[in-house]
Amino acid sequence: MADTLVNIPGLTPPLGPELGDTIFEAPGEIGILDEENLITLNLGPQHPSTHGVFRMIMQLQGETVISAVPVMGYLHRSSEKLGEARTYVQGTVLTDRMDYLSPITTNWAYAMAIERLTGLVVPDRAEFLRVITGELSRIQSHLVAVGTFGMDVGTYGTPLLYALREREAVLDLLALPTGVRMNPSYIRYGGVARDAPPEFFPQLERFLRTFPSKIDEYESILTGNEVFQNRTIGVGMIPPEVAKLYSVTGPIARASGIDYDVRRAEPYSIYDRFEWDVPVRYNGDCFDRYMIRILEMRQSTRILQQALDLITEGDIRAKMPKVLKPPKGEAYARIEGPKGEIGFYLISDGTANPYRYNCRPPSFVNLTCLSQIAVGHKLADAVVILGSFDIVMGEVDR
Amino acid sequence: MPDYDPLTISDEALKALPPAERGAVYKARAAAKAGGAAPAPGAPAARGGAAPVPPPAAPAAATPTAAPAPAPAAPAAVAAPAKPAPPKEPEKPAQPPFVQTVLELIPGSTWQWRHGYAEMKVPREALLEAAQTLRDQGFDYLSFITEVDWRDHYELIYHLYSYNYQAQPLGAILRCDLPRDNMPEVASVTAVWPGAEFMEREAFEMLGIRFLGHPDLRRILLPDDFVGFPMRRDFVTDFDYITVKQLVHESD
Question: Does A274 touch chain B (CB under 8 A)?
Fold first, then answer.
């Protein structure tokens, strides 16, 4: 069968240069890869710049990355196997632990897959609460991404502290409807877990009034900063063709000029009722990935404002049996999470447990192209590139 | 999206529905009896005029039913039940051109609609050919690979979309059965979609499927000394695995 494989030019994944190959030591400076200059560096798994327990085995010549092999699995908790042994509502709890910076979006994808299996109809108010909490989690996740990205570039914490200040506000807001700050299991099949208390909406409005000026603050400390620009512009370029080959989604794809957002490509929930834009930038470097997150936070604020104006009273949960036993079948549902497309593939065999519980984690798939992109950069830039990918190890390892 | 009209559904068909949907039908009938359109109080004006249309995503001309996406259409059906009934599910569109291409090219392949996606099943020898055909038809985005153990055989499920969603709004599912051998072999699609690299590595370590032509087929999530393929249905969890390791470690 192997001879049926067709080599498409340009598609064979390079495994790094070999000894004797011509390499770029520095921009414009060409050298030959030889054995005595080659250093193997183990970065991680416990390293502040790897955002969790991610490990890269790098080969360096001087400071130039010759090859980077990602190693993962240090946070593997066998969520898919656990999901098969639990009921559908218990499976929601596992989704919280995947993307722990934005658990509500993962809840959402899982709930949508079950709703597609069973044909449950979600009430209007629940859809609004899903959009509101979902967009708040997107803001929260992007805040951490922007803040820690500043750390990776070497800003020594100021943007991170600014970002965490607003993240606290968002977490306090989210704690009102969900009851907790982390791992809320808020979005469940058929609706949401609890209704938002009345004081939630004025507080959200107050937050939305001040938040755009806070984004301006991050921009004033990072976007126009010359050092920040030097570290990020032109670093880690992902051309759109490469991004497409490697199934890249989310802010990384949109920074490379791919206008792809699941909220537009396959609209779900009630996103078609709001007016908002998909920010796209075209250079595909670390700076653009950072800018996309800033712009998306502004768009989320727009969506939240409209959702706040349009939300109505009503049920928050569809009528459901106590123990859900979906009919036999299979369903794939996907949503746009803060890191990219989150998908869930569920197979029901008619019992109370899913036969197959499969998650498409966006960070995991986005990481596929990392080793390609990091090659040829300096070691310090490889850290910046990894930071601009905004990975969450809970989701990569599941 | 229910494929029946809640106001004219026959009693037999109603009994066959799951309870949740039956409730929705009763609600719709009661609302119709109460007379007139009675949407939820203070419903957003935006929804008023448009009537319950299928999600605007649905690529209008090409495939009206292609994306029934239950979630978006659902609230309309509940909130405005007294409207002249949600639109009848139009005739299933004829098979999309890419399905026809695959069916013509690969003998023994079948297809059907599943939740708005065109699902094709091909024999395993033709998997790579089907993948290439689909990519040439615009499916340049491999979303994910799901590996399933059906107890008597394995199955690989590829979810495909197009980055150019205006031109190709449909999603496609490519499936292929594998025999339940110890290490079934199948062609890797990394030559077609290099993004499949990690997905295939995961399928390899979870289910023990050998992908021919994969550039770097190794374990990815589990420890290197792990024995067995945990997502197989006959896998027995070895509780000693962790405890024994710990004991050995502590005795050092």
Answer: no
- B188 near B212, Cβ under 8 Å? yes
Kindly state the percentage of chain A with pLDDT values over 70.
Answer: 91
Strands B117-121 and B172-179: parallel
**CB-based contact, A32 to chain B, within 8 Å:** no
Can you tell me the mean pLDDT for A224-245? 86
Q: What is the 3-state secondary structure (H, E, C) of B50-106?
A: HCCCCCCCCCCCCCCCCCCCHHHHHHHHHHCCCCCCCCCCCCCCCCCHHHHHHHHHC
A124 touches chain B (CB under 8 A): yes
SS3 A277: coil
* A65 pLDDT tier (thresholds 50, 70, 90): confident
Q: Could you tell me how far CA B154 lies from the centroid of its own chain?
A: 17
The structure's pTM equals: 0.77
**pLDDT of A139 over the 90 cut:** yes
Q: Which of A101, A134, A366 is nearest to A260 (CA)?
A: A366
Residue of A nearest to B155 (CA): A356
A273 → closest Cβ in B44, B69, B114: B44
Helix extents (H) in B18-61: 19-34, 45-50
Q: Which residues pair with A70 in a beta bridge?
A: A56
Under 8 Å between Cβ of A238 and A256: yes
| In the block, residue with structure tokens 């990394």 | B190
Contact A321 B20 (CB under 8 A): yes
Q: At what angle do helices A124-153 and B70-79 cross, to 10 degrees?
A: 140
Residues of B in contact with A366 (CB under 8 A): none
SS3 label, residue B206: helix
Assigned token pair, A288: 């653009």
Q: B234 burial class (0-12, 13-18, 19+ CB within 10 angstroms)?
A: exposed
In this prediction, residue B33 carries a pLDDT of 72
ipTM greater than cut 0.90? no
Query: Under an 8 A CB cutoff, do A119 and B1 touch?
Result: yes
